[in-house]
Amino acid sequence: MPPTRWGDPAHAGPLPDGVRDLVSLVFPLVETPAAAEVAVPAPALPADLVDGLRELLGEEHVVLDDAVRRNRTRGKSTPDLLRQRAGDLADVPDVVVRPGGHDDVQAVLDYAAEHRIAVVPFGGGTSVTGGLAVERDGYTGVVSLDLGRMRSLLALDPVSSTATLGPGLRGPEAEALLAEHGLMLGHFPQSFEFATIGGFAATRSSGQSSAGYGRFDAMVVGLRAATPRGEVRLGGTAPSNASGPDLRELFLGSEGAFGVITEVTVRVRPLPEVKEYEGWHWPSFAAGADAMRALAQGDLLPTVLRLSDENETAINLARPDAIGGEGSAGPGGGGCLMIVGYEGTPAAVAAKKVAVAAALTDLGGTPLGAEPGEAWAAGRFNAPYLRDSLLDVGVIVETLETVTFWSNRERLYAAVRSALESALGEGTMVLCHISHVYATGCSLYFTVAAAGGTPGAGGEGRLDRWLAAKTAANDAIVASGASITHHHAVGTDHRDWLQPEIGDLGVAVLRAVKRELDPAGILNPGVLIP
Ligand SMILES: Cc1cc2nc3c(=O)[nH]c(=O)nc-3n(C[C@H](O)[C@H](O)[C@H](O)COP(=O)(O)OP(=O)(O)OC[C@H]3O[C@@H](n4cnc5c(N)ncnc54)[C@H](O)[C@@H]3O)c2cc1C
């Protein structure tokens, strides 16, 4: 991926004319190209330490190249992109190292601990919470530990339905390896094409098919990690047990602060023979959310279940013939679109469809047929490209997410919307959807678009405006008694809001684990732990 944008450059492009005209009705469009490329700071890691890394991994796997280092600088949140666009390379790693396996990772960690080098595990680089922007002060240098060479299917147990995967496998690569055996993982976050197995585990990611296949951490049966104190193997003996607290959980969501995940054993399932996606209309977000709750609590969940609020329906998914219509007040008044997807054997899909359709009809939903569902499925990974095109014309656009119990959903929704609208001012668009549900609650995923204010070179003015709005939203989430993140993780961006959620003793426990596993504090300093 280019450092200033998302994804495959071949898919990137300016705003289509129609969209541009529409956007210009709402926001002033100010062409805001990235600043001219600035020189990448010279590596700060002393040359003898670089030589030491070369001895461990071989010359070709210790990379000082400017373009490679720039590409390993931070992740892909809007603040990350705006900083790159402005030429801010303060977080550039000094060296990128490319271990070939667990033993290489262990060797790098041992060496880094001895020489106080900060180590940043790097999977796909799609973090949206500052998980790759570590503190540099007090370290001899910063090494980006790129896991991209560790991308094989290491073991397969078709009898138990488990597969052991290398951490550097991207989503499509992992699925392709499993598909050769008629199997799949079923984890499809919007970042699927670029994010990796190790990254999914390290951030407790959740994908678009979570209703049917669960979140990533729930798919993990076991893992292997290298820590500065040595190797950890967890969960390799049984699917579940009562052998004390489940230590797998210490590494799931540990965001590279406790160790580097070098192998992940996951539950796999047969490739679905049939995939069907359809749309349903709801008179309001609340009515659709109540229906989702009923499905979750009635053990009737399909594979994909997502509901856009009135604004998101109108802006992103509106079909004039099906949504809105009579009595519609345009954005905010045209009802809500729900996408329902079914995957599996023909018999299982048919049976689930009948049962879900009966329940949704009873609850007041109106079927819209396959077209909205297929349109969603066809474009499910495209939205991030649109973000870049909007950033190009000076608009602020970013997403954030949270999760709470059903009884708190409306309060949280109102609080976050109001915080964002107050912080960013009149004309701000706040869209929301629910795409991860549980019997007890759901996540809320917000997309925000706002005027950029006075743009500076590369858009710094927008960065300040967004950071203030994000702080307001985070405060509102905490004040509402919700979680600071459902699946984007903590990183550095959410770290200050973790303490209210887990308490002082919770923070002390995290710090104690960190001290035990990483006494020199070389792994991702500043990430996760308050
Ligand atoms: C456009 C876009 C859409 C997204 N959609 C979703 C979504 O639908 N669902 C979702 O859950 N997330 C989503 N994300 C967030 C992101 O993709 C996830 O957090 C993902 O799991 C990160 O994987 P990665 O391989 O890119 O990790 P990275 O970004 O490389 O790393 C993330 C963190 O984990 C650490 N890490 C990485 N690999 C390892 C390892 N092997 N061992 C230990 N630590 C490691 C890193 O140091 C860092 O702190 C999205 C992001 C973007 C930009």
From TrEMBL:
State the InterPro entries in the record.
Answer: Alkyl-DHAP_Synthase (IPR025650), FAD-bd_oxidored_4_C (IPR004113), FAD-bd_PCMH (IPR016166), FAD-bd_PCMH-like_sf (IPR036318), FAD-bd_PCMH_sub2 (IPR016169), FAD-linked_Oxase-like_C (IPR016164), Oxid_FAD_bind_N (IPR006094), Vanillyl_alc_oxidase_C-sub2 (IPR016171)
Q: Which residues form the FAD-binding PCMH-type domain?
A: 89-271
A molecular function GO annotation: alkylglycerone-phosphate synthase activity
* Known cofactor(s): FAD
Q: Where is this site: Important for enzyme activity?
A: 306
**PROSITE patterns xrefs:** FAD_PCMH (PS51387)
The UniProt annotation places substrate binding at: 387
Gene3D superfamilies, per database record: 3.30.300.330, 3.30.465.10, 3.30.70.3450, Vanillyl-alcohol Oxidase, Chain A, domain 4
Q: Which GO terms describe its biological process?
A: lipid biosynthetic process
Q: Name one Pfam family in it.
A: FAD-oxidase_C
Does Flavoprotein count among this protein's keywords? yes
Q: Keywords of this protein's UniProt record, alphabetized? A: FAD, Flavoprotein
Please list the residues that bind FAD.
Answer: 121-127, 203-206, 255-261
Q: Where is the active site?
A: 445 (proton donor/acceptor)
Q: Which domain of life is it from?
A: Bacteria
User: Record's PANTHER family?
Assistant: ALKYLDIHYDROXYACETONEPHOSPHATE SYNTHASE, PEROXISOMAL
- Name the family: Belongs to the FAD-binding oxidoreductase/transferase type 4 family.
Q: What is this protein called?
A: FAD-binding oxidoreductase
Q: Tell me which species this is from.
A: Nocardioides silvaticus
